[in-house]
Specification:
This protein is α+β, with helices and mostly antiparallel strands and about 450 residues long. The protein is built from twelve helices and 24 strands. The strands form seven sheets. The chain has a five-stranded mixed sheet, with helices on one face.
């Protein structure tokens, strides 16, 4: 019997499983689809996510499929330079989400169980029983990372409040039979207009259209090649011709978030916990950060040395971060509405973001480099995480009772670094309290 079940084989679920396995636990990932998706989906890894993948030895496999390094993010198409961010990776990595997922999955000890759609969840005081693919699976805990239309969320009756979509857009991967010279030859940031076109591998292109026609059509209306052709012609002129539509979907700017990320022995992460306008790859990156925050805390809970409240700190720390992303993406959606008033606001915001201090503040937020938590002194980008998921104590010796849970390293700057890379203590008094809070009670007591 595995220690933990994970529902959902996307990047969030896979990285959660990877983190749990790093800590020595047995994990089974249940995935609805019978085979890995070929849909490109999200296309941008932000700097903090790149740091996380690099620290875990996953980046090289992802970089092998990268299309570009884009030295900026964007706020509703307004460029936000990343050049002076305090990171070794001051850029977005342009790579298809499918390659991110594949790189993580390849490193799991236990293969993903595919064709295993979750149909029932039962929990009691000792664990969770999940019916998936017609089979029952038992574990102590369940992580629900099964997407924006989460089945687990519905089965446990978790409220998902928020705002409904006001705008409608279409995203598709397709080939082009013809295009004007110079159009979509390389990766560029979106400008905020409709008809955004980006080259992918294998002669494919990503297109996003959101004109008047998309606003008239219903959410369930099929996306046709003719509709995409009209959108691209409106944006780029008659010299462009759609070839084959490989996949397409409608989406909007709905913003919803669980009130609590924990429901008994079920914890939610990624799109199962929060949805928003998919702008700038924020959803993929938000989910990856959920995974690295949750993994080590759940591992400590399973191993029996978690301090009181440690597991619940996952919600306490990550819920406000996602709420801020929802706020940001809602604002960006407003700036993209094709009406004169929105255009006027966009012009004002563009001027404000030209101010260096404002631009830097938004860059820290979009990139994830500025993420921190109450009582935490930011991330320790210069100290690699421990390979086995333990905390790292630099420049000091742990008091008796924590040696097995903390990796010690030499250094001139004393710090206690949590398994997710954030500094919990930075010298002076308070080391014992920080160890108790983040590494559990001393075994000497």
């Amino acid at each position: 019997m595995p220690d933990i079940l994970v529902a959902g084989g996307g990047p969030t679920g896979l990285l959660t499983a990877f983190e749990l396995e790093r800590a020595g636990l047995d994990v089974l990932v249940l995935e609805r689809d019978a085979r890995p998706t070929t849909q490109s989906k999200a296309l941008a890894l932000q700097p903090r996510s790149i740091e996380v993948l690099d620290e875990r030895g996953l980046l090289a496999a992802v970089e092998a499929h990268a299309e570009a390094r884009v030295p900026a993010g964007h706020f509703s198409g307004i460029p936000i330079d990343y050049a002076d961010l305090p990171t070794r990776f001051p850029y977005q990595l342009g790579v298809e989400q499918a390659y991110v997922a594949a790189a993580i999955e390849a490193r799991l000890r236990t293969p993903v169980l595919r064709d295993a759609a979750v149909t029932a969840v039962e929990q009691d005081g000792e664990g969770v029983t999940v019916t998936a693919g017609g089979r029952r699976h038992r574990a102590g805990w369940l992580v629900a990372a099964d997407g924006g239309h989460s089945t687990v969320r519905r089965l446990v009756g978790a409220a998902f409040p928020g705002t409904s979509a006001r705008i409608s857009l279409v995203v598709a991967d397709l080939t082009l039979a013809r295009k004007p010279a110079g159009l979509a030859d390389d990766w560029r940031l979106p400008s905020g207009g409709s008809g955004f076109l980006l080259p992918l591998s294998g002669g494919r292109y990503r297109v996003v259209v959101g004109g008047e026609e998309q606003q008239r059509l219903g959410r369930d209306a099929p996306v046709t090649a003719d509709e995409l052709q009209r959108g691209l012609t409106d944006a780029h002129g008659p010299g462009i011709e759609v070839g084959e539509v490989l996949w397409a979907s409608r989406f909007g700017d709905a913003a919803r978030q669980l009130e609590r990320y924990r429901h008994g022995r079920v914890l939610f992460a990624g799109d199962a916990a929060h949805i928003h306008l998919p702008v700038g790859g924020q959803g993929l990156n938000l989910g990856l950060q959920d995974a690295v925050n949750l993994g080590w805390k759940l591992a400590a809970q399973v191993r029996g040395h978690a301090a009181d409240g440690l597991l619940d700190s996952y919600h306490d720390e990550r819920h406000p971060i996602a709420a801020r992303v929802l706020l940001s993406t809602r604002a960006q959606g407003v700036l993209g509405v094709p009406i004169p008033d929105a255009a006027a606001v966009r012009e004002i915001v563009t001027g404000l973001l030209a101010v260096p201090q404002a631009r830097r503040a938004v860059a820290f937020e979009l990139s994830g480099i500025g993420i921190t938590y109450p009582g935490i002194a930011g991330r320790a980008a210069d100290v690699p995480v421990a390979p086995d998921g333990r905390a790292v104590l630099v420049g000091a010796s742990p008091p008796v009772g924590w040696a097995g849970r903390v990796e010690t390293r030499d250094g001139t700057e004393p710090r206690l670094i949590r398994p997710d890379g954030y500094v919990a203590w930075a010298g002076g008094p308070g080391l014992d309290a920080a160890l108790r809070r983040w590494c559990g009670p001393s075994s000497a007591n």
